[in-house]
Amino acid sequence: MSRYITIALTILLFFTGSAFGSDIREYFLPNGLKIVTVEDHKSPVVSFQVWYKVGSRNEITGKSGISHLLEHMMFKGTPKYGKGEYSGIVARNGGNENAFTSQDYTAYFQNISSDRFEIALDLESDRMVNLLIDPMEFMLERDVVKEERRLRTEDDPVSSLIEELYAAAFKIHPYRSPVIGWMNDLNNLTRDELYNYYKEYYRPDNTTIVVVGDINSEELVEKIGHYFGGIPKGLLPVREVKVSETEQKGERRFLYKREAQLPYVIYGYPAPNYKDRDHYALELLSNILSGGKSSRLYQNMVYSKQIALSAGGGFTPIQTDPELFYFYAQLKPGRTTEEAEAALNEEIERIKREPVSERELQKARNQTEASFIMQQDSVFYQAMLIGQLETTGAGARYLESYIDEIRRVTPEDIQRVAQKYFVEDNRTVGVLVPLPQTSTSP
What pTM was estimated for this model as a whole? Predict the structure, then answer.
């Protein structure tokens, strides 16, 4: 009997369930690798995604940015496939690929024709264990990431302000550090540190493979077993991050002064993640306050009072640990940050004081449900959502009750969570104070 058939027959766990019309199947290989599949035969396409449970949350002090830098190095070759060959092979076979790093995970994906997805199995299983990390390539790619930081953060006043907000809002938790890393940390990272980090976290028992598209799940798992089943699990358990942020004892406020065109105000309130049922009401509240041009913040601050060019907020419950519910306003020329804060506070206090109407809540429900349903049309977004749920601990089964939970939220729930979480003593406020541009000689 061949090795991959043996592995397929010794799968430890398998069960099925429905998630808003989709049939989610879950498997474990003996080496700890988890596989989640959804068969979707609308078109002959497959989204193959490999999710590692490691992101900036796992980085120790002084090593910020190492997860993102490792993502870059994963495209730099193995003994089997040299530098640049990975992307070229996928492209020549009509597919597209990329990767991304967050606070909680690092993911790699290929969207490719269903008759060629085995190419992805070969490439991903190879670089899971055989990455070279050439010292010269490491130095070159570290410089690329540093330049990316300059362009995306240091040259962008708003991105820099958001980075400062997280550094102020989180005193202990690693969410305080940016995913791309602090520049000083990037300067000090070494090739050996990156290699050891790769060996610690890139292993089957710290990985979930998600496949959505034109597949047969049983045949697919057999093939995954052939390519990944022989990779051993880690010798030691993955280090757990068990950090709880200390209770905030009063509003934190900072001024961020730098060259910029316009002032900007941002609030951050600690908010729960998926583990607390309050997050369903907070999701709908986010829609009511900032879901498009008909939202309360836009109507009040942009349209009516004409204080801001843009205003809104956001909340992401699918995180390994609790994060922030934020509000923001980019001011119009001639308007003050005091006016912006007064308008933001007015809307926050209003929703704490007065229950929203059933009509307004139903609109938020409809928009949330529509967005959820529309994602099901894309095999890529289906797989991405499942990957996020799996790597943060929520699990794909979260999808099965999501719509029902959204429909259960009442106006009283909206008012209650606003009162509970939008507390002045708990918030962090950042204000971008523009400085005049310094003239430079030609």
Answer: 0.93
